Amino acid sequence: MWDRYVEQNPETPARTIDGEAIVITPHDSTLHTLNDTATYIWDRADGSRRLSEIAADMLAEFDVSETELRADAISFVEEAVKKGLMFVHDEPRASGP
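Below the sequence we write its predicted structure tokens.
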């Protein structure tokens, strides 16, 4: 998971307001409010960067240990994939239109 490319499910309605992402599970319309770590990952999950690359940037912005950040990031992505909010890929996806 750590070295895979993360991408938002394009069918997932989402909005980031005041630094907090709010996303809706596509299949059951459940509303999810993401914490700071999850929002940071969500906002950058365009399929062009590995989770490890996104987390490396986070280390410069958040006061958190690398071990804690890694565990939180992997946990979030695994849960987001299970809920259908995100996809992970072995190869990068083209970002943008």
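The radius of gyration is 13 Å.
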